[in-house]
Amino acid sequence: MQINRLLGRFLVLSALLSANSCIKKDQEGIDWRELDKAYRMQPQDSIKLDAVAFLKSNISDISFTEPVFYNYNTGQIKKLSLDSFQNPTELNNYIKTERLNTLAYHRYDITSLSTEDIRRTIDDSYKIWKDNPWKLNIPKEIYLNYLLPYKVMNESPVGNWRSYFFNVFKFLLPINKTSDTPMARKDIDSYIEKGIITLAPPNVFSGNKGDFRFSTWPSLQEMLTARSADCHSESLRNAYLYRSLGIPAAVDFTPFYGGGNAGHSSAVFWDSQKQAFTPKAGQGFNPDYKASKIFRLSFLKQKIWQDTILNLVGSPDNFSIEELKNNHWYDVTREHIKTSTVTMPMPGNRLNYAYICTYTYGNWRPVYYGTKNKESAFSFRDLGLDVIYQTAIPEGKGFKLTGSVFLLDSAGVIKMIKKANGAPARSIALSKINYGSEAWIQKNKSYTLRAIDEKGAWRDIQTRTAVKDSVINFSNISLEGLYLLKCNDKSKRLERPFIWVNNTVRWY
């Protein structure tokens, strides 16, 4: 009976959300004709006309999800204004007291914004671009795509972050800068960083990784209240800050690192001298985690999904990389790291596309796609180096691993991984399950040594219980092959693959 009541409440809640989310994309609240007419009356506003056209032509498929709070006993929706809470503790206590859970509510931007929202976006961004306090060389196309937009990409458009960040940080703008020489990016970064450290309000840049969030890409209100310091929140905060001060900013991301159990996103900023986007010193993508692919979010439709991938796969359900199922990204891997293009034969794949996978959180996950060439091999462009990969064949709504596991070494040379047999065997001692600080072997916990087989799957070799901290021994182990050490007492799969090189472990 209790299960039936809960199910009934969930279905009622789902129906309410579905009814509210059935707003058609053409039922927008933006009067583009009014904006066009207003700016045409002033010839000096030609750039603003371009801004109207740019936003109108690129906004149609941009959407977001926002959290909807409901009582998990009754299913009743509870409206919350996140910015009414003073700190994360107050918000968290309220959620516990009111017995609230959240569901993700999907909406399109054009149903959530008004004509005035777009007018303010254009006027405020144009003013800071025209004033150009840093004396940067910012081409019009960079202004339109990375300074003008009212959001980065996936976060809620509700909330005027540009006004908020400008009013809080306008003291950082250069004063009485009469020279037309652009400030060097490193000087801008240093100047802004010092200002943040000494004068930034505590609710803007004071989050920590232990704080919570309700959305993958949080809104301004959620960001200021929950104060999460995960990479998505940090990249949005930094992009907002720089854009509000007249410096174009973008967000780059990798769905999964090639050598770490995580994805990552990082803000990058316009370098006037290089005429390119670069991260701040010490930020970007951790070289120890070995990125495999890196993409940039773009308000301008790139149409790689629409014109290329969708034509290959036929249906969105047939493509296994969720992060690439939209028209607003492009590949920037080569802007961050050294890369190489890999071409692999894949007998048995009758389709015109295939996947390249990396290992993360206990599974092989596709990070990019490749297309078939005239020789019926598949090319995967611009892959990060010093990463272990495995190819996969699309199968229904998923994929099937091919067993072709290889290392793309630091010189861009493909080295196929051999099955762990037939090589000299020896006893080995291991101290960690990966190269991280929390990966040490723990006394009395059970561990299984696994090796990759000819089908690209992991098979168990030996299971042991650690008799002391920081070391566990296995006997009669081949020195060839790809291994990992799995902790059987942890649900979170943090182990990383490794090989033996000169009698030592090399992590991947």
Describe, in plain words, how this protein is organized in 3D.
This protein has 508 residues and is of the alpha+beta class. It is 27% helix and 28% strand. It has 13 helices and 22 strands. Strands 9-12-11-10-13-14-15 form a seven-stranded antiparallel beta sheet, with no helix packed on it. A five-stranded antiparallel beta sheet has the order 6-5-4-7-8. It has a three-stranded antiparallel beta sheet with strand order 2-1-3. A hairpin with a 2-residue loop joins strand 13 and strand 14. Helix 3 packs across helix 5.
Write the topology of this structure:
Layout: H1 2-20, H2 32-40, H3 46-58, E1 63-71, E2 77-78, H4 88-97, E3 100-108, H5 115-131, H6 140-146, H7 161-169, H8 185-199, H9 202-205, H10 220-226, H11 231-244, E4 249-254, E5 264-271, E6 276-278, E7 295-297, H12 304-313, E8 329-331, H13 333-336, E9 339-345, E10 353-360, E11 363-372, E12 377-384, E13 387-395, E14 398-408, E15 414-416, E16 425-430, E17 446-452, E18 458-465, E19 472-478, E20 483-487, E21 498-501, E22 504-507
Antiparallel strand pairs: 1-2, 1-3, 4-5, 4-7, 5-6, 7-8, 9-12, 10-11, 10-13, 11-12, 13-14, 14-15, 16-19, 17-18, 17-20, 21-22
Helix pairs in contact: 2-3, 3-5, 7-11
Main features:
single chain, 508 residues, alpha+beta, five-stranded antiparallel beta sheet, 13 helices, globular
Could you tell me how far the N terminus lies from the C terminus, measured between alpha carbons in angstroms?
A: 50 Å
Class of secondary structure makeup: alpha+beta
Helix content: 25-40%
Strand order of the largest sheet: 9-12-11-10-13-14-15
- Proportion of β residues? 25-35%
Major β-sheet annotation: 7 strands, antiparallel
Low-confidence stretches: 1-12, 19-25
Please work out how many helical segments DSSP would assign. 13
Please give the number of β-strands: 22
Give the overall pLDDT as a whole number: 88
Which geometry do the CA atoms define?
Answer: globular
**Alpha carbon gyration radius:** 26 Å
